[in-house]
Amino acid sequence: MCGYRSRDNTTYYLHYHKYFKHGIPLPKGWTAYTCDLCGKELYTKFQLKDHKRTHAEKTPFVCELCGAGFQSRSNLHSHVLHRHKEEKKHSCNGCDRTFKTRTQLAVHERTHTGVRPFSCPQCTYRSTTRGNMRLHLVNRHKMPNTVARDIMRDMRPDVDLSLKPLWQQVASDTGELVLG
Which residues are in the C2H2-type domain (predicted)? Predict the structure, then answer.
């Protein structure tokens, strides 16, 4: 029909793709979840719950530093951590950059290791982050953002993320690069 293939070669995503993109009915017993506020159809209860938050006006979790409101405590915590935490205590040993979180440092270190742990299910493209892979799926393969987001939520890195950066692979006695 259009060449769409699911990343795991199962028919699960294919059925929803056909329904949302081509109007082909879902198999018997399958359902799309419809937002009662705007009519948007989603294919998991989790997506529907997540989507409904976009309609919520209540933001009971308020940042004491700037007054921004959030719908969940975890979103507030993430906001404070990334917007207001001044100290950048995670330093890269390969360059002079510092980061607020260990996760940001780990992602940055991939620029030194060359590790691209996320493989596109439809072509040979590889990415350093889930976010970049999601953008690739949406822009290159014209995948709906909701489908790409769900694929990325389930995607696991296909390489060992504990691979040491190049500067940590140098033998201390010879100064030569040790490749494994």
Answer: 33-60, 61-89, 90-117
The whole-chain average pLDDT of the chain stands at 75
Q: What is the pLDDT of residues 31-65, one digit of tens each?
A: 778 888 778 777 778 778 877 776 766 777 788 77
Which H, E and C letters describe the chain, residue by residue? CCCCCCCCCCCHHHHHHHHHHHCCCCCCCCCCEECCCCCCEECCHHHHHHHHHHHCCCCCEECCCCCCEECCHHHHHHHHHHHHCCCCCEECCCCCCEECCHHHHHHHHHHHHCCCCEECCCCCCEECCHHHHHHHHHHHCCCCHHHHHHHHHHCCCCCCCCCCCHHHCECCCCCCECCC
d(CA 41, CA 59): 24
Beta bridge partners of 42: 33
What does the block give as tokens for 162? 């504990």
Query: Distance between CA 101 and CA 109 in Å, rounded?
Result: 13
Q: Give the CA-trace dihedral at 147, 134, 5, 3, to 10 degrees.
A: 100
